[in-house]
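Lab notebook, bench 4. Still working through the backlog of constructs that have no structural model yet. Next entry is a single chain of 433 residues. Request: give me the structure tokens for it.
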Amino acid sequence: MSTLTQAAEIETVETKKTGGAIYIIGALFFVFGFVTWMNSVLIPYLKIACQLTDFESYLVAFAFYISYFIMAIPSGWLLKKIGFKKGMSIGLAVMAAGALLFIPAALTRTYAIFLLGLFVQGMGLTVLQAASNPYITILGPIESAAKRISIMGICNKIAGALAPIVLGAIALKDTDALKERLLTMTDSEKVIELNILASRVITPYICIIVILVILAIAVVFSSLPEIDTDKEDESTAIANVNKTSIFHFPYLLLGVLTLFLYVGAEVLAGDSIIGYGSSQGIPLDTAKFFTTCTLLCMILGYVAGIICIPKYFSQQAALKVSAVLGLVFSLAAIFTHGYISVLFIALLGLANSLMWPAIWPLAIVGLGRFTKIGSSMMIMAIAGGAVIPPIYGLLVGKFNASSAYFVLVPCYLFILYYATNGHKIGLAGKKAN
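Model written out:
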């Protein structure tokens, strides 16, 4: 057999392995997309079931996303010890444990237990994200990383579009009429009705537990290959020879802050739109579909990314355009009303769609042996989803639901800065203009 033929056969085998790995990672992105975007329904649902204020209801986002900040570094250590494959399985098992807590939370209608369950789910997702995002980035050329992440984003957002429809149909069914009835009920009657409402989530979460456990077992026995991110190619090793700390990569640190603000903006757009629609006088039975509209806009953006990056425009160019669109749509939502205003919040899904796949490769390129710790810091930045939505909830209480969206303006301005200049600061061979 000739050397050329052997090389072709080896390349075919490696392509099959890569393709199989992408399918498995795509399934995982689907799972944590579904679990993540159920929060958009849980916020208005728990506001009614547990009789919460606007700020208290947005603690759903805080409890879920703060786990990324707390668990990101431990996740990196765990993955270094046991590898990506076992780490993904453990992450799924931890998510199942968090979903299990929803059963006693619903039976006792205790908001603190709901929040604990969300925090534990977030812990599991942190491990999954810490493994899967660098995995899909490194599993091929860095120049086309945004395209691969966009494919994963479609899996994630299709699940996210389905999640509020499925959970909303169960948890928010006839809640507009229930809110009216609660106004005329005695305290004892309210308790009975609210307990019945709280119990609606038990069956969906039992189904989620079963699916997560099956996936955890499936990943253990899958053919996912391990990737050694501690090895550097020659050029990267030379560039990093005098770098002894992750803090020697300012473009990464700026990328972490950029991702923090982006995630906060994305979570706010998806998680607040149902409540915002209700504040605009739109019935919850209609508003419960608005998160799905936001995520469908994100899917359109991901498809554009797959087609156009890097063939027609670069990752950083996509980030620039996305930041500008975010600013325009945010201001348009603030200064309009009703369905038009809600439409602009939904269109933020389009603006946000290419930010995650563009920021990741710009931030971790050239890290070499620092890739795992850099990825862990990027995962910590997902805590932006824990900070920006509660700030919005506070502003709603002080001003109104529309004006509170001004919190998005500085977020998109900083993202624009990173796209134009910040991603080049300290990058070997480049300097900021």
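Notes after review: DSSP finds 20 helices and no strands in the chain. The CA atoms of residues 397 and 405 lie 12 Å apart. Flag for follow-up if needed.
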